[in-house]
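Students often ask what a 'structure token' actually looks like in practice. Rather than answer in the abstract, let us consider Mth938-like domain-containing protein, a protein of 127 residues. Its sequence is given first.
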Amino acid sequence: MAERRYEGFVPGRHQIDAYGNGGFRFADMSHKGSVLALPSGVKAWEATSGQGLAPADFLAVRAEADDIELLIVGTGVELVPLSEAVRWHLRELRIAVEVMPTGAAARTYNVLVAEGRKVAAALVAVA
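Now compare that with the structural description of the same chain:
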């Protein structure tokens, strides 16, 4: 089957099939840029770096907070700590957060989705 491109949102839970070259593959589709993998589906995410992420970057996570117990944040090639403002924002939503490089985040997300956990991922694209 030929790989398809998508225009910003694919409904449903999907594992990340591949990452790199500035994007991701999932559900027989490809996307250039960062993504949010949420309980409702995978959507484009404007973040281009793990540096400088703010609570406003996680509004889509807030909208689905009741269905998320753990948010895995992939910050790119390197681990970039989240700001206290972001950590407090997620804590107020009662969402635990784990931060790691994007590759490890995608792999961890896939395992937890396969286990049926209430997990989401915010993944910064890597080259």
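One point worth highlighting: The first strand starts at residue 4 and ends at 5. Ask yourself how you might have guessed this from the sequence alone, and why that guess would often be unreliable.
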